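Shipment paperwork, digital attachment
Item: protein structure file
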Amino acid sequence: MLPVFASNRLDSIIVYTAFFIWLLPEVLSLFTDARGRDLQVHDRASSLVLLFCLWLGIFVSINIAFIVPSFAIPWHRTSLFALGIFLMVVGVAFRWYAIRVLGKYFTRRVAVQPGQTVVENGPYHWIRHPSYSGALLTIFGLGLALTNWLSLIAVVAITFVGYFYRVSVEEKTLVNALGDPYRQYMERTKRFIPFVY
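Attachment content:
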């Protein structure tokens, strides 16, 4: 079975709209966010690795859904599709909420600003990387919307590799720059999912 949206025009419009809601703010922020341009960057190519894994995961998962339909999820396909779209939008909203809470300390590259402190407000009280959690929720939603087990596994696994590397680089940088306050913050919080991981 092909993805639900492959045979339904309204569902395909919904998928394209979800992608638009997801990607438009990301693209616009590339051009409007000047923060981090004058900072010492400790990125270690994590931005490139993350983008590569993200787009590779999307490309592979969509192709799998069409090329290997034998892995299609056979039950409640319309409901899974709707849940996937819902999670995509919720993930986008949560990501941008987390970015807003982080405020002036948010950059697209791994960098620490002069006078930066550990942010523990809002979602940062429970998890260290809520903007990444939002992105991963969006990716999980995409996988569900494809209604294919192999697509779901591929998009989550490939994208997670990029985020895992990015977080490793980011946390080392923050420990070196912020010291014990960030170490203590790491001890009492999880990376992506409260109380889990």
